[in-house]
Write a structure and sequence with these properties.
Blueprint (H helix, E strand, L loop, with lengths): L10 H10 L5 E3 H8 L4 H10 L10 H18 L7 H5 L1 E3 H20 L13 H18 L11 H16 L2 H38 L1
Antiparallel strand pairs: 1-2
Helix pairs in contact: 1-6, 3-4, 3-8, 4-7, 7-8, 7-9, 8-9
Length: about 210
């Protein structure tokens, strides 16, 4: 388990240091994991989430990082070491675009850190049963992140915010942050329902127009 960060060891500072150490023309998920080392799965989750918090499209990242976040959630739920398929671990990603996206997304981490309070609403973070529930919620948010709505504004941002709140809350044992993660997940479901419902209505209206012409 990762120790609760102090002010001098803030999560944003640790992520910034990891990003600064990412070098080379291409990066892979396996290479990123090697840079993080023993910091833990939740810090890795934060790093993989940050890039989705800004309006930038980086080819291949959504599939690779989304799948990795899903497997991290499963690893936490089953309490087993993280397993990644070789193709996912070695998939090459554009390093410069990825580094820029991660740096720009760090501002979100720093904002969310300010609202986090270690030990707050401990009942939402401490027990075995609630940890299982939170891990299931994390997996669900990862699935929402992987939903095929990447072309729609904020479709990656909302579940990414939920995942970031979950990770911060689990690291700092902050039930308040975890609660915000649940609310962000609910908001994502509502947003997707509106998208699907609105798209279905538009297609139905178009079909009626075409059929009536």
């Amino acid at each position: 388990m990762i120790a609760t960060p102090t002010r001098s060891d803030a999560l944003g500072n640790r992520l910034e240091q990891i990003i600064a150490e990412l070098d080379g023309e291409h990066l892979s998920l396996g290479g990123i994991i090697e840079r993080i080392g023993s910091e833990g799965l939740l810090l890795l989750s934060m790093l993989l989430t940050v890039v989705f918090l800004i309006p930038v499209s980086i080819p291949g990242v959504s599939t690779v990082f989304g799948a990795a976040l899903l497997l991290i959630g499963i690893s936490r739920l089953t309490r087993r070491p993280l397993w990644l398929p070789v193709r996912l671990r070695e998939r090459r990603l554009p390093a410069e675009k990825l580094r820029n996206g991660l740096r720009r997304g760090l501002s979100w981490v720093r904002r969310l850190e300010r609202v986090s309070r270690p030990g707050r609403l401990a009942a939402l973070a401490d027990s075995r049963a609630i940890d299982t529930f939170n891990s299931l919620a994390f997996i669900f948010a990862a699935l929402l992140l992987m939903a095929p709505f990447g072309f729609v504004p904020f479709s990656n941002t909302f579940p990414a915010i939920a995942l970031l709140f979950y990770a911060i809350g689990m690291i700092q044992r902050d039930g308040g942050a975890i609660l915000l993660g649940h609310l962000a997940t609910i908001g994502t479901v509502v947003y997707f329902a509106v998208l699907i419902g609105g798209g279905g209505y538009a297609l139905h209206a178009l079909w009626r127009m075409v059929g009536g012409s």
